Each structure stands twice: as C-alpha cells, then as structure tokens.
Amino acid sequence: MPVRVRIPTPLRKFTGGQESVEVEGPSVAAVLDALDESHPGLKGRICEEDGTVRRFVNIYVNGDDIRFLDNAASPVKDGDEVSIVPAIAGGT
What we know:
There is one protein chain. With 92 residues, the chain is of the alpha+beta class. The chain has one domain (3-86): Ubiquitin-like (UB roll) (Roll). 17% of the residues lie in helices and 23% in strands. The chain has 2 helices and 5 strands. The chain has a 5-stranded mixed sheet, with helices on one face. A hairpin with a 2-residue loop joins strand 3 and strand 4 (64-65). The longest helix is centred in the middle third of the chain and has 11 residues, at 28-38.
C-alpha cells in the first residue's frame, strides 16, 4: 500500500485535477521524487533546486510538520498521508 499525497488546489493542474495521488517511497524526499516522476514539474513548485522544501510550502506526514521531524529525510511508510500545504500570507 503506497503513501497518499494530498495535493493543494493550486498544484492540481499537475495531477489532472486529482486532490490526492498515491506514490511509493521510504522518505518524504523519495515521495517527492516519485511524485515528480509521475507528475512532471510538481516537485519544482514544492522544492528549491537543491531539493530543500521551499520556505512557503509546508509538508505534513500524518498531520506532523516535517520541520519538526527530519525535514525531507522524514521517513514514511505504507498507508501514511503526506499533505502539501502552501503557506498563506495575508494581512492588511
């Protein structure tokens, strides 16, 4: 059973409108690589060229922010849910 990745609305153009996709990988970084293989261009919207997650993108594994785990090295296992959430800026 693969990892389910929840795709935010602005990035669904890369997934044909799907709100979630399933990929396999032992870590968040591997999941992002697999996601880019099946949906080219998606990783470039999430990560910098060096592979680090862009600062305005939050990624959660089963609700836990990867910044408080091992960032992109955070392990994932079959059945986990990875959520990609663009940071919302606002104010007046």
